[in-house]
Design brief:
- The complex is a heterodimer of chains A (55) and B (712).
- Chain A has 55 residues and is mainly α.
- Chain A has helices at 9-31, 34-41.
- In chain B, helix 2 (52-84) packs across helix 6 (194-229) and helix 2 crosses helix 13 (339-368).
- Chain B is mostly helical and 712 residues long.
- Classes of the chains: A mainly alpha (55), B mainly alpha (712).
- Chain A binds chain B through residues 1-4, 7, 10-11, 14, 17-18, 21-22, 25-26, 28-29, 31-32, 36-38, 40-47, 50-55, and chain B through 1, 3, 79, 82-83, 85, 152-155, 157-159, 222-223, 226-227, 230, 232-233, 235-237, 240-241, 244-245, 248, 266, 270, 469, 471-475, 478-479, 485-488, 507-508, 511, 514-515, 518-519, 521-522.
Chain lengths: 55, 712
Amino acid sequence: METIVGIEIYPIISFIIFFTFFIVVLAYLVIQRTEYFDKMSMMPFDEEKPSTNKI
Amino acid sequence: MEKETFRYDNTIVRKFAFATMAFGLIGMLVGLTAALQMVDPWFNFLTPWLTFGRIRPLHTNAVIFAFVGNGIFMGVYYSLQRLLKTRMWSDALSNINFWGWQLIILSAVITLPMGLTSSKEYAELEWPIDIAITLIWVVFGLNMMMTIIKRRERHIYVAIWFYIATFVTVAMLHVVNSFELPVSFFKSYSAYAGVQDALVQWWYGHNAVAFFLTTPYLGLMYYFIPKASGRPVYSYRLSIVHFWALIFIYIWAGPHHLLYSSLPEWAQNIGVVFSIMLLAPSWGGMLNGLLTLRGAWDRVRESAVLKFMVVAVTAYGMSTFEGPLLSLKNVNAISHFTDWTVAHVHIGGLGWNGFMTFGILYYLIPKMWNTKMYSNKLSDFHFWIGTLGILFYALPLYWAGFTQSLMWKEFTEEGFLAYPNFLETVTQIKPMYAARAFGGSLYITGVIVMIYNLIMTMRQGTFQREEEASALPLAKEFKAEKGEGWHRVIERKPIQFLVLSLVAVAIGGAIEIIPTMLIESNIPTIASVKPYTPLELEGRDIYIREGCNNFHSQMIRPFRSETERYGEYSKAGEYVYDHPHLWGSKRTGPDLHRIGAKYSDSWHYNHMLDPGSMSPGTIMPSYPWLFDNELNLEGTPAKIRGMQTLGVPYAEGYDQIAVEDLTYQAEAIALGLEKDGLQVLPNSEIVALISYLQRLGTDIKVKDGQAAMVTN
């Protein structure tokens, strides 16, 4: 990195990383079934219940 | 497979709870003292150890690292075990974490009033303590990650993601910001200089807010609000998206502390844009917290715990709305360096961190002592007086910030400054400072009431050292469900999660910091800028020791109101030898970047001895010890060598004659003062400080014979 000319490639790369990541995350969230999220949100209450491990 | 029986460790939670309460009170009392000092300098008590400049960092470090820090550990050690259905991996590491942290706090209490400080905000502790912090933080992280690996609950609840991100990012921030070269046992110089140092400092500083004051507490919110209300979090989906958005975006916001400064404009603009974007994930968190309680507001009415948590989350929302607003350049032009910033900080600190900590304490203590709250009336009283305290703290400071800023900027019809005397703008807002101190004392009253209430609660109950629980161990071979999403895969693999989080948070810092370091055109060289002379360097170190940067800035912004008042606006190239930078973030007193050659040496002499004699009505304390103390010249050669190592172009071998040069310059100053009838030893600290102050800002109109010997 000698001069500031052409520096914009780095923010562009970051933007691409961010954008792709978030599209993937949002896609995942839309596709994933609600039962999974319901189960996860109950985790603080699971102290009495057995863990989610399967034997 | 058989269920395993194990015990949750409550003793470590209790230790951290006690430390949280104790340091909360102590840290806030130091803050109250500082607040009173701004109303009447008498409260500096004429001793070097308690001046505002020395105890302001003690206050910030105490409330951030001692109060909130212990609060984080308290909440994490409690919730982590239960969410993972396992005891902490190592009781020994838990205790090393606890005692190590308290020893670090103790070292801060000792060193900061002594003036052993790096001057870098929220990182003032000198290099030996920085090493200790790294070690203890690693201990914490190791204990936490091993506990996660040895867990009996396969899936990792969202709160724990926040804890992991906290651990990894704080480690990165601390290590990068702490690149400093020791020149003596408790003195170091920042490896960075000027603009770069400022950028690294505020990349660190803002993310200390993000990853020490916010992310761990969001994690705690995701555990304790459901526990206290009996309701699951409103939207788990939202928690996933706002977690990743928050940790990606927060890191870039640092430059919003440097708007209209000498930081290159591209970096400033990035800071602005990302700060605005940050509104979304922050409010995602706030909404998730508040909407968890939808339909259960009647329970909030009856529960002090929930009241505290609701106000905490609301204050978080207010703060994270105000923050992006303050990051807009036009708003920042008004707010920067004023009490508006202080008000903003305390909405978050008192409202979000304070109230969430109180809510968690009120929840945990009765639970761990297996009893009911001693007095609901007292906890309600605490809630109301604490809320009033926040209002009485913030509202006067909003008023003060606006008033002072507008006074700074006002011109007469003829085009002159309407308030050319800075002190006039201070006098105007002193009543607001008194009101703020009152607000703080209300808040502290609430804390005292809480401590009393909790002690009585503990007395009437029996402490449960451990809680027995049982769960199936993790199956060694886990067959993934068909069609399991990739994210669930990562959730089950904590180390990969940690690495991913580190990548996410490292990007922002790298993009902002690396070009600023490597590309020379960001910091245009000014040929007339030369290194400090040895005497000026010693004076600068005294400025740092006394914490002058806590109330004086050294950054003149390109506004006409500033150039009229202070002189030419500050250029990036003027700071290239400033290890560390001293731009400051608050103008309790005027900017000093071009104070050089504005007043006579005698004026500075009298002003430091008794500021009131030169500026009647000032709130600046006196510094009589500078006249009695002599410089420790044995350390000067090492300082010069240190600066040379950091790239400051002193001539080769200059450290050998530095003391000679220093003495020569000092004697000239002492002689001049004597002519004005002022007696002083040439080697006294005041002479060094005067030489530094007289140098400030003069490089761009350099006079012959002033510069130190340098290579070309």
